[in-house]
Request: fold
Amino acid sequence: MGHGKATDVRIKEVSVAFEPVSYRAPLKFGGRVVEHASVINAQLTVETQNGKYAIGHGSMPVGNVWAWPSSVIDPADTERAMKAFAGEVVELFDTYPGFGHPLEIEFEISAEYDHQAHRVSKMLNLSEPVPPLAQLVSASPLDAALHDAYGRLHKANSFNTLSKEFCKTDLSEFLDEQFAGEYLDKYTLREPVASLPLYHLVGALDPLTAGDVVDRPKDNLPVTLPEWIAADGLTHLKIKLNGDNLDWDVNRVLSIERVAGEAQQARGCRQWYYSCDFNEKCGSAEYVIEFLNRVKSGAPAAFDRIQYIEQPTSRNLDLPSAPNMSEVAKLKPVVIDEALISYESLLKARELGYSGVALKACKGQTESLLMAAAAQKFGMFLCVQDLTCPGASFLHSCSLAARIPGIAAIEGNARQYCPSANTKWAKRFPGLFNIKTGTVDTSRLNGHGLGFQ
Reply:
């Protein structure tokens, strides 16, 4: 990958540790319910040729129920396999011999992921290998720690170490010839945007009104949708839908429009937005079109508020039966989420009529930056999504969102489902965890490394 640079680093030490996180309320998506999680915390030391070194950190929930929704392997086993895979990635990082930039190191190491995925499954006697999305999630804390350490070493924000000055090769090496002569500094901002709207999740099990509350958690946090809107000044609501029950899906949006409408009116808010997430459960594009048409006839204002539709059908875009989203995209932006695992998958999604991408820190800092560059070149709709990321993993997600031009909003739902995991960080970054005006204050994410010390 070209000749070495004085700024290049090699990996000196690397480790991961696992931290349990309990939920205050169950979260339902894609037909599954999550009530607890594990977080992978990575620590990585890099050094330069002349012996200067720095330590970086990365953090991400395992997110196995989302990253690996297997029909044959129990969630406890997919979680175990993803943790084991993270251990294999530690080994890959630990034994990587060369010097380089984080983009180059991660790009070369990730070529080994598929082989390790088969190894882990064989080792644990599982009937399928760790899938690509689960590989990216398991490796993402290490990738983040590498970028973080590199930035800290050079006393710079990691997003400002992506230019020709630091990188040996241009983007054509990682993407294709359309990106010849370009570097990631072209597709990132030198300072974080001051703030971003926060997407609040309305899960399929979440109570809309007091009458829906069965079991109120014994804390002082909001529970119903009007309580959340009033407490956090929300303007963006992400609605989880079933995708296989049209009446329920339409009625859910219309109910949310009614309940939110009263709550917003009470606080004098006239403009708010929705995103609709089907978590791959729709069988066809026709289902989505019918859903949108019915929402429009039931409440034109609710239809107008829908900012985008997220991953309505299966993440497997290579199936001959993969639905084409062109007609849906004429009505609203349609973004890929679970399907976005590589540049090839992005190109395939565009062929199938998808018009936007959801970036996620859990797919890795390197992968997210590359997909952000491609999406901008192709004029696609951009948003940053969440993996119910608590603490440092949410700060990483915010940092990513604040450095990519054109991000519509950021999602952050750990404050709803596992707020105790945020406590330590909320003291240091109150404007990112204690939401008051429906926005996240990203202005302070300009420190060395990933932006938060």
